[in-house]
Amino acid sequence: MDLPVIADDVPHLSRVVPSMLHALGAEGFAADLDLPRVSRACVLLVDGLGWELLGEYAADAPTLSALWRTPLRAGYPATTAAGLAALGTGLASGEHGMAGYTFEVPGTGVLNALRWCSHPDGADLSESLAAEDVQPLPTTFAGAAEAGLTTSVVSSAKFAGTSLTRAVLRGGTFVGVHALGDLVSATHTALEQPGSFCYAYHSELDLLGHLYGPGSAAWRMQLRQVDRLVESIVDGLPEDSLLAVVADHGMVAVDDTVADVDTTPALREGVRALGGEVRARHVYTEDGATADVLAAWHETLGPRAWVAERDHAIELGWFGERVSDRVRPRLGDVVVAARAHSGVVRSEAEPMESRLVGQHGSFTPAEQLVPLALAYG
């Protein structure tokens, strides 16, 4: 079975913030997206808003659909921790190292990057595992502040000071918000002065996609609220400003072809730990077992997934142009990316995640392609 080879015909999500900072006149940032010069800019990340979904449900998002837009590539794995880190570092997962929803950190075990806890037992790691050690590279937000820009991170108040926030968003002034109203208001306030850069985040579309499925009635109603959010921000944009609406990944609804590790002995033999998520798995093998595990997962999953040994996946560019020595051990000895609407669940170890309708992480266009939609004040 042919494995995906990453091409550069669609720009990576990591190019967005450096290009916006270049447009603001900050030195040292590449202008890969060729944006016009402005005096203030904001990137709004709508979690889970795929390019294909936006196209299919354009009638529910007339404001977004009317903006100039082009697709971006989320990168592998197509998941929130990696997407936020791509914006926050200007790099792909092979360098920033936020390699999935869960991934192994040598000396610690498998980390749930969103909750910053041990996976799957849930033990809190916020005190024992420093965010700055897991992701030590300088952030784009710190670079913006050092360049003299007034830099704001506008997100839910519950994320203030969390380990994930420190890992990928440090460097900007955090502004905690509680609902759509103060998200809009805080974004406008952050753009009042020339020389301002703002990052804003909205999470609920992704949540409803997971619970009810992308394209469900509940998801479409939330998309309408997202469109009103964008309309409200656009209406209040000051002169000489830029708003870029992006997403961290798209989403698919999984079907009954999923494989369950916890009820399939062939998927457990030789496996010492399992990371990733339903559509993108890191399989960590016991010493000397990688070849056997690779063969077993190939045979068991068949056409339901792409299965690759770690070095082969790296050679194919799955994790970006470069994979650092710091990041390499976080990647599975065997890497598994689901095809079509399948996946790999863990009904006993991950009961909540295994029940979700909407999933993401893999290489399908529905997951990989996200919008870059631009509006100017």
Oligomer: single chain
Distance between the termini: 49 Å
Q: Mind summarizing the main beta sheet?
A: 7 strands, mixed
The CATH homologous superfamily of the largest domain corresponds to Alkaline Phosphatase, subunit A
Contiguous low-pLDDT stretches (5 residues minimum) are: none
The amount of helix comes to 25-40%
Q: How many separate helices?
A: 15
The 3D shape can be described as globular
Strand content: 15-25%
Top-tier CATH class of the largest domain: Alpha Beta
Main structural class: alpha/beta
CATH topology of the largest domain: Alkaline Phosphatase, subunit A
Query: Rounded to an integer, what's the Rg over CA atoms?
Result: 20 Å
Strand order of the largest sheet: 2-18-9-1-8-6-7
Organism: Prauserella muralis
Protein name: Phosphodiesterase
GO molecular function: hydrolase activity
InterPro entries: Alkaline_phosphatase_core_sf (IPR017850), Phosphodiest/P_Trfase (IPR002591)
How is this fold's topology laid out?
Blueprint: H1 16-23, E1 40-46, H2 51-56, H3 62-66, E2 68-73, H4 80-89, H5 93-96, E3 102-105, E4 109-112, E5 117-118, H6 131-134, H7 140-146, E6 150-156, H8 163-169, E7 173-177, H9 180-190, E8 196-202, H10 204-212, H11 217-235, E9 241-246, E10 252-253, E11 259-260, E12 271-277, E13 280-285, H12 290-301, E14 305-309, H13 310-315, E15 334-338, E16 344-345, H14 351-355, E17 358-359, H15 365-368, E18 369-376
Parallel strand pairs: 1-8, 1-9, 6-7, 6-8, 11-16
Antiparallel strand pairs: 2-18, 3-4, 4-5, 9-18, 10-17, 12-13, 13-15, 14-15
GO molecular function: hydrolase activity
InterPro entries: Alkaline_phosphatase_core_sf, Phosphodiest/P_Trfase
Protein name: Phosphodiesterase
